[in-house]
Amino acid sequence: MSIASPLTRLAATFVLALGIAVGGWQIGHGFIAGREQPRVISVKGVAEREVKADLALWALRFVATGNDLARVQQQVSADEKRVRAFLTAAGLPAATTEVQGLEVVDLLAQAYRSGPVDSRFIITETLLVRTADVHEVAEASQQLGDLVAAGVALSGQTGGPIQGPVYLYTRLNDVKPAMIQEATRNARLAAEQFATDAGSKLGGILRASQGLFQILPRDAVDGANEQAQAAKIVRVVSTIDYGLVP
């Protein structure tokens, strides 16, 4: 039976200690690496484009009153002819206009009426213009004074102010792909600049979120209504998270 020399035992002890030390370092390093948070940058890319409305809707509402129903009806019919003639002269074909509504009110027939009645009958008619000729509608809407001068009593809903045309943009799908590409490109440019300033390199996309497309008034003054302006701004914002590498 051989007995190990002191030198041999010392060497074995050294090897064992070295193995324990290396194993401990590896375990500790792995634990620390596992707790490190990935370096992430979140940026937004914006794309905007000016567009023109491609559809105009214009409701023209006029009213006639009186105590003789037949005469009130005649007045409404005459007013309708005047309105249609006005639109035709403005370059809007007859096919673009249709009767949207006709309302007849007999005030004496109202159960909860109180006080005297000056005009028993009220007839309200609404003509709706629907056309892609946005420019012609915009021009005609500036000449409404001609109708008033001709004796047409224009009226707004529930006695409110007269409403102008509504301008719509219906071709959003035509511009979406290019705008998404532009927003993504702008986001990457911002992220690359940030990475450069931070002394890092830009990694791959970790997460991306496309915002909603917005149609805004081009002239964003106080109280601006997008549908009242033929010129509009389409806007989209994309949010993208990139990884950063040393």
Automatic annotation (TrEMBL):
It comes from the Bacteria. InterPro entries: 26kDa_periplasmic_antigen, SIMPL/DUF541, UCP029033. Pfam families: SIMPL (PF04402). GO terms for biological process: DNA damage response. This is SIMPL domain-containing protein.
